[in-house]
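Hey, sorry to bother you again with one of my protein questions. I've been staring at a protein lately and its backbone has me curious. I owe you a coffee for this, so here goes:
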Amino acid sequence: MGIILHIKQFKVISRNRASTQSVLRGVSDGGKCWITLTATENIPISHCFLCTGENCPHIIYLQPQQPQKFCLRLGLAPDLSDSLRGAIEKALQTLNVGSTAVIEVKLSEHSSCQVTAHLDGFSAPQAFYPTPVNDEEEEKNQPTLRKNAATGDNVEATSSHGNGTNIAWRTSTPRLWFAQASVLKARGSSLFNSAPRGDAHNLSPIIAAFACYSRALQLVTLIGAALDLSLRAEEVEKEKEECEVTFGLVGGDYIDLDGDAQYSVDPERVEVDVEAMEKVHFSLLSNMALCQLKAGCPAYAVKLCTQALEIAPQDNTLLAASQEVDEEEEEGGRGIDLRDVEKVLYRRASAYLLMEEFEAGIEDANRLLQLNPTNQAGEKVLHELQVSLRAHNATMARMMKKAFQ
């Protein structure tokens, strides 16, 4: 039996939801769960957060009919969605504290087992502002309409009563998303670096890394769209609130399925701003482009690189910034820097080379060398593009000559 259990099929065959818990405060993506698992068969479960496949030294097994306690944070391992962990995560999102779900896992055509998951406790983001409970409060939170004197049309006016922001939002939510995106990015990089060098056919680590980067990008995009709402809510709340609240009573020792890879950014302390968001957004697009290059999909790599360059500062701004900071500051900067843009230009030029769009690639390589004339990788790809373009032009010339003979 392999280290990572890939499930052919699973389904929740029974569920016992605790009647005293509100269904509105269940487990959600990003929440941490403390659970008790009981299996009918001896089956493996992924333990180490940053270890995958048969190289994982921390593999553990669920012992038959022996309850075992685990904790994990949902959504931090999208590459394991077809494993036992993925099946458990899906089941947990249907439960409240004190509830259980029985998961039937089909291991092969002729064998299956059952895993009972009991939710002992979980953490969840702070609740949004509560839904109004009466007509008077509902009316306070509704926008009002007034006549536009110039056009005579009805336009929305801001109410001076009730919630000043007129939104249901928590300032802590973007901080949680940012921390989760940081962990997913770190996991993706670890998976990518675990890929065997020189083995172009083993794409499993690359695909797994791309899944992590993609999920992180979704969270970053959400933060970017909601950042203005968060800042407005922060002005109203004035005091910084805790990111999460915990439900249920958790006792005893729990095996952490996330291993040593906790949040690389503390959500209680992180300050999410536009500069930090753009840095992570740019980095994720760049890494996803590299995955597409490794997978032999240069057109998608070009698309991702182009998206990244659209949010980068102008070249003259990058050059000026690189002259103002020393090496230590540049390495740990919060914003997009010159080195980041160099990588993306190199990757897009390499993708253009594979697509035989040599002139576009030469343009990127020249731009790269204008930013950093000492970039050896840029010099190499420029030479390859120029040689390929000359060979292509010579071939076309011979074909044209034959056509008119």
User: Anything to note?
Assistant: The chain has a mean pLDDT of 79. The two ends are 67 Å apart (CA to CA).
